[in-house]
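Researcher: First entry.
Model:
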Amino acid sequence: MGSISSPSRNPIRFQENEDNYYRIYASFCEKDYNPNVNMSNWISCYHPSTNSWHRLTSIPDLLENQVLKGFSIVSIGETIYVIGGRHCYKVVGDELDDSVHERDINVRSSVLKYNTRTDTWSTCAPLVTQRYNFACTCKDGKIYVAGGQTTLDSAEGTCFAEVYDPAIDEWKPLPNMSTLRYKSAGVAWQGKIYVVGGFAKRGNSDSQGPYIMERSSAELYDPQKEKWDYVARMWDLDIPPNQIVNVNGKLFSSGDCLNAWKGHIEAYDENLNMWNIVDGSHSPISTSDATEAITCPPMQRIFCTMAPIGTKLYFLAGYKMQGEISRTKTEVHVFDTSATANGWRSFEPIEEEGEKELCSHCCVLKLD
């Protein structure tokens, strides 16, 4: 792949290891208009053991060319949950403009679950508060959501949070955060729920006065104490994080909302309250939105998402390949956070027709 190649690029040989008992799930939709193709969401499964993708199912309750964005997808046991989101409709412009546009329909409170064993969908109790672009994570078999946007015409987040118990199919409101917050990253860490970064603001001591911006902060929820605590400057950037994951008690990040991959992995130092570049984590994943090579057509990275499995971080990156027929090249790169030397390994890329768009971050499911 030209500039995407690296001396550290070594194709993985398939062998029996713990990773083979995991599956990675992500939701995609068609990006380019095709009169013969429905652009609505589907869910694909990635198999690390065979480096293969399998399109499993379409998200139900969506009419043709309707898509869901800004939602969360998480797994508990053998079940995948699709939570909330921004419901929109993909349309094509007129004769002078044949590009695809999105028209918003509404913000959803619906929650759907997909049983990966029986290949069936069912409806769960809806969210107490409809939302999209919210933080979401799982802990002790329950799903926690916080913040997000609740209306289509407002750039302001919400302070509302809630928790779902699958055993009784019920969402329970949690205490409000001290900040209105959206596009945050949610992660369970050290027994608490962290809502990190995002576009946030909170009121000052004068309830009638202006809001104070709090972009570089986080809030943590203690399920035992049932209260939120504010953490200043935990994410020391104005740009919201893309993803933050917990691997063996350490937090790792790989990018932000403007650049899903920054060229390296960062780990959080709780003692210094700062993020540091992980040694040896500069990778073969392209950091450019437009890479060119003499031996292959120009390519543009169109998505990158991260999935933790054991001590490893799996990075799923997609590239648009220019040509008469639109094609997507998907690459999977793996970084072992426990490695002392070269921690990167890479699977062989996979090409397919059409340009697909990633509609949510991925989730990981372990097979029984």
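Researcher: Second entry.
Model:
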Amino acid sequence: MARVSKATMIGELLQIDADVAPILLNIGMHCLGCPSSQMETIEEAAMVHGIDADDLVEEINTFLDSKA
């Protein structure tokens, strides 16, 4: 089962499971296709968007676990 951390790159996250995109879009991360966003970590992206990185990682991992 896939797990992510705050250090996971957005590009890597979307390769793990593209179905995560709506979670990111719903919190205001509308730049998922932008090349620079692909090289940001979840923590960096969360910081830019004013989101708690730990909460975001927990939400993503819960989502990924539910698909296992």
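Model: Note on the second entry: Helices lie at 10-16, 21-26, 35-38, 42-48, 53-66.
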